[in-house]
Specification:
Elements lengths: L2 H5 L4 H10 L2 H8 L6 H7 L8 H16 L2 E9 L26 H13 L4 E5 L4 H4 L1 H11 L5 E5 L5 H10 L3 E3 L7 H7 L8 H5 L1 H8 L3 E4 L8 H18 L4 E5 L18 H14 L4 E4 L5 H7 L6 E3 L27 H10 L3 E3 L9
Parallel strand pairs: 1-2, 1-8, 1-9, 2-3, 3-4, 4-5, 5-6, 6-7, 7-8
The chain binds iron/sulfur cluster.
């Protein structure tokens, strides 16, 4: 049994019709409830919930404050490689893009680490493309072992792996894995992932199950907004979250909200998610789940990030470079996508403080520190 079994009991078109048929009176009734369930979440992300944004935002703020206090966790991504054997229509690292490829060596990884430590980071997200020969399990395991004494919390966003491979990485010091389904619409998924291992929709869909079985501490979920209707994709993501929480109750979860960004070989969003829509979605998630980590990256603009701090988010990245060696080794190598918020770590730290929040740099200690 896996999420695939649950997934197959739902139909995209039926869900879409349901989400777009809610009325303001349905939403009003739902907001009167103390506990918001998955069916209610569907109504809260519908167009009918738009007039209730202020009420949802206040409730989301209160719930986040109750659960996380006045704190925001900071993390930083470190790109280790831009080599990739997949074709993804929306990514600058896609195999068919003629760009110089680079995978960081040990001394280069440590140079990047040295730079990031001067900024105060203790939570790091390692990112690679999907190239089994160069950045397979052995490379990732080695990178974790190389940096684990410098960071108490190591996450990865790399190719989906098998259960025993995840177990090896957890034993080496891995804390969390981010694996976004991109879209839960099978036909659209196929269009955007025509070649490579990533074209296997089902293998990706069941990746969080393999992670849960391997005993990972935290799993990050999300959909890439722009590929399909964001409301239906978000319902499926929430469904995935609830299934996983019930099945792997010892594991923690986070949700991210990536929107398509400009990159080499650009693809235009099929469905736009506006800033207003994104705030509505973040608030709906918080109302659905007090405990889940809600994370926002530097894909979003300065203005948006300043304003979202108080509305449900509890984790953000800063000063991100999306190119391997981007901090200290090779700042000019090609980025995966352009970031929108270019402020440095100290500026983000000050912005968070000015809103009455404290930054959490460390909330975990690993066995190597
Ligand atoms: S999204 Fe990931 S798998 Fe797809 S081309 Fe980019 S790096 Fe490769």
């Amino acid at each position: 049994m896996s999420f695939k079994n649950t997934f197959e009991t739902y139909d995209w078109d039926t869900l879409e019709k349901e989400i777009y048929s809610y009325t303001t009176s349905d939403v009003k009734q739902i907001l009167d409830k103390e506990k918001i369930g998955l069916e209610d979440f569907k109504a809260l992300i519908s167009p009918a919930a738009k007039p209730f944004l202020e009420e949802m935002a206040q409730r989301s703020h209160a719930l986040t404050k109750k659960r996380f206090g006045n704190t925001i966790q900071m993390y930083v991504p470190m790109y280790l490689s831009n080599e990739c054997q997949n074709i993804c229509t929306y990514c600058g690292f896609s195999m068919t893009n003629k760009i110089p490829r680079r995978t960081l060596k040990d001394n280069e990884i440590l140079k990047e680490v040295e730079f990031l430590k001067t900024k105060g980071y203790d939570h790091i997200l390692l990112v690679t493309g999907e190239a089994n020969k160069t950045v397979g399990v052995a490379y990732i395991k080695h990178a974790i072992a190389l940096i684990r004494e410098h960071f108490s919390n190591i996450s990865i966003e790399v190719q989906p792996l098998d259960q025993d491979e995840y177990k090896q990485l957890i034993d080496a010091g891995l804390y969390a894995v981010l694996v976004y389904q991109e879209t839960y619409h099978k036909a659209t998924y196929k269009i955007h992932h025509p070649k490579g291992k990533k074209s296997n929709f089902d293998y990706r869909l069941d990746t969080p199950d393999r992670l849960g079985k391997a005993g990972i501490h935290k799993i990050g979920l999300g959909a890439l907004f722009g590929l399909e209707d964001w409301r239906v994709d978000s319902f499926y993501t929430a469904l995935h979250l609830k299934y996983l929480q019930k099945t792997y109750w010892k594991t923690k979860f986070s949700i991210s909200f990536p929107r398509l960004r400009p990159h080499q070989g650009e693809v235009q969003p099929k469905v736009e998610i506006t800033d207003f829509d994104l705030v509505q979605l973040i608030c709906a998630y918080r109302l659905l789940d007090e405990d889940v980590e809600l994370s926002i990256s530097t894909r979003e603009s300065e203005n948006f990030r300043n304003n979202i701090i108080k509305l449900g988010i509890n984790s953000i990245s800063a000063e991100s470079k999306t190119n391997p060696g981007g901090y200290a080794v090779d700042p000019k190598s090609l980025e995966q996508f352009e970031i929108a918020d270019e402020r440095n770590t100290e500026e983000i730290h000050q912005m968070i403080k000015s809103q009455g929040y404290e930054v959490v740099w460390k909330d975990w200690t690993n066995n190597w520190q």
